[in-house]
Amino acid sequence: MELAVIGKSEFVTGFRLAGIRKVYEIVDVPSSESAVKSVLEDKSIGILVMHNDDISNLPEILRRNLNESVQPTVVALGGTGEGSMSLRDKIKQAVGVDLWK
User: What is the disulfide pattern of this chain?
Assistant: First the structure.
């Protein structure tokens, strides 16, 4: 399984430097939509990394597909918008229990 990264230039640069080969650089919402669809169809990709703000800009149906996706597993990083979650919330969603209580 491979790792794929979708995002703007400043987001994906570090992943490129780390040796990630499947990097999809986006500039607008239509390019992010096509990149996400391409990754969802590629069965060799096991993990998809995206910036939370880029996920928030996607159409609702595509966001739902990403949230429900098992393969690839979607990892959303960063973001300050309404859709961003704290680490605590992400763990609670993944595990189903609030471990900090």
Answer: none
